[in-house]
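Continuing the series of single-chain predictions for the mutant panel. This is the parent chain; the variants come on the following pages.
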Amino acid sequence: MSGLSLGGCATSSAGSSPMDARAQAPAAPKAGAYSPIQDKPPERDEPTMTTDERLKLRNELIAARDRQPKAAKVQKAPAQAEPAKP
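Parent structure:
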């Protein structure tokens, strides 16, 4: 019985070696969807955003942040009403 249980773990060694397994392994893909890690994009000649664009965006984000608490209070107001008594 023990011979049968070990038979499942044993592999056939006839005509195969570790070197043969490497030769039969599929080759790595040539080109992928992503660039290799060491390939960096070229340095930019001009900044991505001008100073005026950064200032405008900063002010828009600050204004949006300041509107958030007001909008949250408006949404909470109906939910805070007292429930009707049965």
